[in-house]
Fold this protein.
Amino acid sequence: MPIRLHIFGLPYTITRQEFSGDPSTEYILNFGQMMINYNFEVFHYGVETSQPGYTNKNINILTKEEWEKLRIESIMLKENITYEDAVTYLKNPKNSINELATANTPLCVEFNKRLKLNLQANYRDMTTDIICINRGILYNEALNGINCVVVEIGISDKDSSKSFRIFNSNSCLTSTIAIEKCSSPNYWFFIPPPFNITDWRFNLNPFSNNIGFLGHISNHKGCHIIVEIAKRFPNTQFTLCGPGDPNIYLSLPNIVYKSPIYGTERSEYLGQCTAVLLPSTMCEMFSRVAVESQLCGTPVITNNSGAMIEIVKQFRTGLRCNTLADYCHGIKLALDGKFNRVYIRERAAKKYDMYKIGYKYEYALRSIVDVFTPGKKGWYCENSHMNSLQLYYKESVKPKIYLFLPYFGKFPNYFQLYLDSLEVNIGLLVVFIITDIDLTHYKLPLNAIPIFMTLDTLRERLSKMLGEVYEKVINPNNLVQKVYKLVDFKITYPIIFNDLILSHKLTDQDFVGWGDCDLIYGNLHNFINFNENFHIIGGWHGHFTAIRNIDSFKNLFKTVPKYLELCTDNSMTFVTDEIAFRQPLINYLRNNNYKMFYINKCMCDIVPPMFYHLVRPNHPEFKKNFFNNRSPNKNINYVYFSKKDKQLITVYDDGESHETTYCHLQKRSMSLNFTEYTEFYIKEHEFSLVLE
């Protein structure tokens, strides 16, 4: 029987992305999603319209209408204001939603009253169920009189009181021990809060001279220090973003205000900053903004105390400062590009990825259950749960993606650029280049494996495979009369080239598939998180599709209606990989509850002229038609590739930009006038060097 976790939403917010500006709300959003992946049951208790992610049961304690009414009543009492003023107060983004984080408000009182009833109906017993609470003092009334196991999670303040506690930082844990003057408790744990690192997009090319602050705008958070720093950098913009009154800090022309932001906006904002400045005057017990900034690759300039010592690695992921001169030195380092944003992102992802630190939570929670399980003897239990921790510290071998690329004829003139971009993905992506073309003139990266094979030999393989599957004699000379006809065979490549799969010792955790070479790769490491247990990477497109190396997936092509006719009819190419294969693939994923990383949402798929009318019906009205499927109403300025920084960026005419998995050129003719480079632009009809 799995352990059931009862996770309480906060009375003063709704567990959904719109309220993720509150650290505790984001913690709850990620915590349940993380733990369900470790074979725990998750019950969430909150306000109607909550979206806690993956849960076994989502229980509404209050309706949205009731919640809105109780919020107004609570703020009226707390601030001693009228109904109209309370409504205005709650709508003002400058006011913190934490104002209602007290247990004696009408909102919390009613929430606890109903929570108690729902908890009594769903809590089984102390050997199987754990109540997980963040900001524990809010729920005392709901828990009074109930015989249950309660664990305070995500602690980053001094208000915790339960026997079982999980602290966000070692600083918070040790300071609490000092305050309470107790010996080191056996069931107090330090585990960083969970972060869904895919929510935080890595940005290698932030805006220049742009220093950001995100948090409550106040002296406590050091905004007056930001003013002093801004005086010394008059040509640098400092942005104050968050709740609070910014007016007293907007005394300089280079200090600007940005309203509070939530969800994906936070990632965009933090990633665009040259550095994030957090000069808090308090000893911070944790800083979510510091972690989020680093997940975007942005260095953090902050104070030299509390959890910041654990979060910021000196001179590597930012600078911890004691004096005004220290802060100015850190800003100067960031403006001069002295911090490696790739390293910053990689370190943060390794430390805070919720699908990895979940092992630590599993260890802690299972150890706590042993205290109440008959025969386990609690602290004296003979069996340890250290195996979970061992998995956390183990350097796991990540899956790889293996693509088959049969190619006959002539490579595109930018094939070396394709190979160079493939090299960016060593350790993640391998391409078998199956061809009879002489490759000696190309510089092949280690993850490009050449396989010499003629088209006739490949036809023999295709003939043999079709004969075995359909029990018919297929003349190989009647197959693939034109090379482009190979696209109708792509879905069979994992079977056709199974000998390569076996000889290279691929496992069932690896991915096999097909791809094209009329593209330039970005850094796929920044997008694909294998901990999310994907079974397909890509989608239903011929330029990049990879499926788990399992027999049921590899043989899925057999479910395509009339597939033998499609691949043997040489009168036309049916684009089977993208059309006839799509519905069987969708059905297979749905029936098996398999997850897909849909790569198209992150790619730049340049639309060729023949398809302008489908994607941009009014294309004759545009002076330029250099656009992709993702944003058909705006033109691309260029796509930027850096060999050194290992990144591909799509930049639009309006200045918007985003990192890109790959740029698919759809066989368009491109001019190329260079061979040596460190970075280049992909423009409408050419590759061009980036000039200093």
About this structure: Residues 407 and 435 are 5 Å apart (CA to CA). Residues 106-122 form the longest helix (17 residues). Residues 4-190 form a domain with the Rossmann fold fold (CATH 3.40.50.2000). The chain has a mean pLDDT of 92.
